[in-house]
Amino acid sequence: MAVATSSAATQPVRTASGREALPLAAYALGGVGLAGEAVVHVQQYFSLYHQVSWIGPLFLINAVACIVAIAGLSYAPTRGLAALAGIVISLVALVSLVVSYGNGLFGWQEAGWRPAITWIVVAEAGAVLFLAAALAWPSRLEAPRAVRRA
Q1: How many CB atoms within 10 Å of residue 81?
Q2: Per-residue pLDDT of the chain (150 residues; tens, 9 = 90+)
Q3: Are 126 and 30 in contact (CB under 8 A)?
Q4: Where are the domains of the chain?
Q5: Backbone angles phi, psi at 105, to 5 degrees
Q6: How far is residue 114's CA from residue 100's CA, in Å, rounded to a whole number?
Q7: What are the CA-CA distances from residue 119 to residues 25, 44, 114, 123 (Å)?
């Protein structure tokens, strides 16, 4: 008597098609940008900004927000919202950096250019670009195109 069983070995392996793999890669690279942003903000908090009122705590808040967005990117139902949040987080940080070089931000004015600023600009711009590209990618849930019959 034969018994039908189900095992992982007999189940088909689902792999992402090229159409699905590109936005997933963009989400992943956006997450890497957010992770880099978080790491640099934490490092800069402890090395320089921990005693600067407003700016220091904002660096830690940015890092926590990045981590929350990364967690959201890892779960498919929240991926779009997390990507949008990641874009906003990174854009606000970039604009804040620009403002701090001008009139200053909450009493803090940046002067000079350090390697950490280069890293943060690259990480934030990368996060914005990759997450925006992932969100702009056509959804696989689109209605199928009508088939023309001759």
Answers
A1: 12
A2: 555 555 555 555 555 555 677 888 889 999 999 999 999 989 988 987 778 777 778 889 999 999 999 999 998 888 889 999 999 999 999 988 888 777 867 766 677 778 888 898 999 999 999 999 999 987 654 444 555 565
A3: yes
A4: 40-136
A5: -130, 115
A6: 14
A7: 21, 11, 9, 6
Query: In terms of residues, how long is the chain?
Result: 150
The Cα–Cα gap between 145 and 142 comes to: 9
∠ CA 118-80-42 to the nearest 5 degrees?
35
CA-nearest of 103, 100, 94 to 40 is: 94
Place of tokens 């906003």: 88
CA dihedral angle for residue 86, residue 119, residue 41, residue 61, rounded to 10 degrees: -20
Residue where the block lists tokens 């990641």: 86
